[in-house]
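As a warm-up, study this chain.
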Amino acid sequence: MTSFPQSANAARGGFVLVDPDTGRPVKTIPFQYNPDTLTRTLQPQGIGGEPGDRLEALRLKGPPHESFKFDAEFDAAAAPEKYRDGLYPVLSALELAIYPTTAQLREEDQLAHGSQLEIAPAEAPLSVLVLGSRRVVPVRITDFTVTEEAYDQALNPIRAKVSVGVRVLTVDDLGFRHKGGLLYLGYQQQKQRFAATINDPVTSVGVTTI
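Now compare it with the structure written out below.
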């Protein structure tokens, strides 16, 4: 946890859970401290199979598979007025993003006992990772590890590190009209706008022509 990125005027990262039907935010879970580091991995789709396949060498089937990994740290002692029950509330809010609700579980049980032949899995809220106004990304949480590092006298966790892995959801996953699909298009367009500002001549890499 570094002090400079957490200054009063710094943007606060976090998750926003969005109703998949209405597109409205239903819960916002800000990070207490922004991650010190973040690892992004991109795997291109459709870059060709065997070498020598000339028809496929430059084709892209869709957006790359992109994933993020980062740690979010929480310390109840730094804000006791907010974390009166320790870190249970914020940890529970983060964890429940990957749980079906108890109402959904009961409904599935009732359908199963009613001889329903096919039961669709429960749909969770859309998770949106926000890391500043220029990186608002629809994601699916793929890894979630909580390391509880300290407790109060009632054994409430008061210091914890949450290690999170997410996969970016694209228009391939959600479609072009889904709220998440629209957020993804905005995310990619932001990349395109930044990339367009780079316009160095070929001589800048030490050759005169290609």
